[in-house]
Each structure stands twice: as C-alpha cells, then as structure tokens.
Design brief:
106 residues; alpha+beta; 2 helices
Length: 106
C-alpha cells in the first residue's frame, strides 16, 4: 500500500509526515492486501489567524473498492489526523464487511 502525504498552506515538517505515516500504518495495516493507495491531505485554512482550521482529508483506494474519503478538522493538526485515521479504519472495515456479506469478491 502506497501512502502519499500532501500539505497545503502548512509547513509539512518531518515530524508531521512521520506521525501521519505511523497513524496510517496503524489504522490501515490490516487492510494492506485490499488497499492500493492512501492519500493524506493536510491543510491550515486560516493560517496564523487560528481557530478550528486544521484539516485532514484521507482517501483510500483499492482495486475492488470505491474510493473512501473522510474529513476531519480541529485546532490541533495531530488531533485531526488521529480522528481521521480512526474514522477511515472504521469506514474501510464497514465497506469490507458489507462487500463480504453481499458475496462480492475482493
């Protein structure tokens, strides 16, 4: 599974990049066989003005899956990454369980 981490309007430091990479590996590691790629987009919408403006968008794709996208925002970028990672984990699990119940091959 390939993971791409992109930043927009935010200093994408090595610490942030490694944190996002680790969270994706933890959240999606068990789905490596069915996922092709993961895209993590991080943004700071308001810049230095502050507020609830740190966005994390995660999109996963697989050969037998319709792309799954989750969005989270918070004042803290790390919290937004954590929440989005948890939501994408649950969303992929639901999608795979649903396809298994319907008899769709992965």
């Amino acid at each position: 599974m390939k993971t791409s981490i992109l930043g927009h309007g935010i200093a994408l430091t090595e610490a942030i990049r490694q944190y996002a990479q680790r969270r994706m590996a933890t959240a999606l590691g068990r789905y490596r066989q069915v996922l092709e790629s993961t895209y993590v987009r991080l943004a700071d919408v308001n810049g230095p003005r502050g507020g609830v403006d740190k966005h994390c968008v995660i999109e996963v794709r697989g050969p037998a899956l319709v792309p799954i996208v989750v969005r989270e925002r918070d004042t803290d970028l790390y919290v937004a990454i954590d929440r989005a990672a948890g939501r994408i984990d649950r969303a992929v699990a639901r999608r795979l369980a649903r396809s298994h119940a319907l008899g769709i091959r992965r």
